[in-house]
Amino acid sequence: MYRIKTPKGGQNYWVPILANPDIVEHYSENVVDTLHKKNLLLLGEDRYLSTLMLRTFPKRKQIFVPQAVCKTVVPDKFMVLLSQRRRWINSTVHNLFELVLVRDLCGTFCFSMQFVIFIELVGTLVLPAAISFTIYVVVSSIVKKPVQIIPLVLLGLILGLPGVLIVVTAHRLVYVLWMIIYIFSLPVWNFVLPMYAFWKFDDFSWGDTRKTDGEKDKGHGGAEGEFDSTQITMKRWRDFETERRRRMSAAWPQAPMNGYSHHDMY
């Protein structure tokens, strides 16, 4: 949810935010001819809009709105989950590539936001290697004699600290159970899904999570050629609303209500 414009100073002075020419120019880009652009504009256009807002207005804030309600379709099949995470991971990586170049973002503690974003980008890219090394540490600590206790204790502390935070903040033990399930599923989340996403860096389809109108084998945004702007209907909201009400009133007599038509009621 973005502000279209916002007041600045006095005397009823407004400045454009979402309607800023820089935002509109970059977000309306229709020449998508590189791997980076396709991941930004065909897979992660919603995240790219946030990236553009931060890049254009680095001194402004994006805040969490707890009143907002969002509904989505949760994948119930593993292949659907694969396609969803492929889109999310690849779009995240390319958006982080854009954000890491922004110098004016506010920092955290003594670190610049560029450094924080760079660490997040590196952490995303090395997820498969990190989980592989974790499994190697566990297996080697158990197999080698004598058993290496310190690596296992440190690993347990790292994975168990979120459980302590859950108990302290949420006060619901059932969340600890879900955390244990998540820990056992880490090889899937941190190895299988990222490796599949990196292997499919050139796949720009939206998968089976949701189908878009007219989507075929090439998927979302797969069409090539010059865009014909005459296909877009240019109309003011007042004219659109008037035409919509006229169509509704014209269709009203043909719509039966409780077994009676509009004419039967008079």
Write the layout of secondary structure elements.
Elements: E1 5-7, E2 14-16, H1 21-27, H2 35-43, H3 45-56, H4 78-99, H5 113-125, H6 127-143, H7 149-169, H8 174-184, H9 186-199, H10 237-251
Q: In short, what is this structure?
A:
It contains 10 helices and 2 strands; from the N terminus they run ββαααααααααα. With 266 residues, the chain is mainly alpha-helical. Its EC number is 2.4.1.16.
Kindly, what is the distance between the CA atoms of the first and last residues, rounded to a whole number of angstroms? 47 Å
What portion of residues is helical? 40-55%
The strand line-up of the biggest sheet is 1-2
The SS-based structural class is mainly alpha
- List the total number of helices: 10
**Rg to the nearest angstrom?**
26 Å
Count of DSSP strands:
2
Shape annotation: extended
What's the mean pLDDT score? Answer: 81
Strand content: under 5%
Helix/strand order, N-terminal first? EEHHHHHHHHHH
Largest sheet: 2 strands, antiparallel
Please mark out the parts with pLDDT under 50 across 5 or more consecutive residues, or reply none: 261-266
Main location: membrane
Subcellular location: Cell membrane
Pfam families: Chitin_synth_2
EC number: 2.4.1.16
